[in-house]
Design goal:
The structure is a single chain. The protein has a single domain (25-82, 93-182), classed as Up-down Bundle (Hypothetical Protein Ta1238, Chain: A). The chain is built from 6 helices and 2 strands; from the N terminus they run ββαααααα. It has helices spanning 30-55, 57-77, 92-106, 122-145, 154-176, 187-208; strands at 16-18, 24-26. A two-stranded antiparallel ribbon has the order 1-2.
Length: 209
């Protein structure tokens, strides 16, 4: 059990922070950056849950599980040596669980026929925001994995990749129960609509004259 008696330690005042193996890294280090991005993903999901719980308590409970998975990823990132055995590292089974949940939610949704905007209900909008933060965390882990001398658990990368899809589908589900997706309108379509409205207005003015 983790026990924290003091919140501030002053050990990071010089711009460095410690990893779980006792090593020190600069706060701009790629591994510390990845840990921070995963933490931000977790926080974004926490905010989304404020809106999801009022809509679907069962999905809120799922997101609580996801938040614990993200803590596991952060704990694994704090152990840079792949030879260190630990129960804290996330397993490939967690990405498979996300796939199962994606399929279950997607079964209740109509096929996508256009790109959609990250908008709609409060739950959907916050889930979309959490999705984009997840993508940023995934990019940070991918960059760390590509750095010579660094190691990233492949299961963590797979989990983040599936998580963004999971949040996307959940956002769609939130909007589906409130009228449907918010479709993207390309510039050409918007221009045609504006011109059509303009022509109709001119015709009405001619009729009035």
């Amino acid at each position: 059990m983790v026990k924290l008696n003091r919140i501030y330690t002053r050990t990071g005042d010089g711009g460095e922070t410690g990893l779980a193996d006792g090593s020190r890294r600069g706060k701009f280090d790629a591994r510390i950056e990845a840990i921070g991005e995963v933490d931000e993903t977790n926080a974004a999901i926490g905010v989304a849950r404020l809106h999801v719980v009022a809509w679907r308590r069962d999905l809120d409970a799922e997101l609580a599980v996801v938040q614990n998975d993200l803590f596991d990823i952060g704990a694994g990132l704090a152990l840079p040596d792949e030879t260190v055995a630990t129960d804290l590292r996330i397993s490939p089974a967690r990405a498979r669980w996300l796939e199962e949940r994606i399929d279950a939610m997607n079964a209740h949704l109509p096929p996508l026929r256009s790109f959609i905007l990250p908008a709609g209900t409060p739950a959907a909008a916050h889930l979309h925001l959490a999705r984009t933060v997840t993508r940023r965390a995934e990019r940070a882990l991918a960059a760390l994995a590509a750095t010579p001398g660094e190691w990233v658990n492949p299961a963590a990368l797979a989990f983040l990749n599936r998580l963004s899809d999971y949040l996307f589908v959940m956002a769609r589900l939130a909007n589906a129960e409130a009228g449907g997706d918010v479709a993207w309108q390309p510039a050409a379509a918007r221009q045609e609509g504006a011109e059509g409205k303009g022509a109709s207005g001119a015709e009405r003015r001619e009729e009035q004259a």
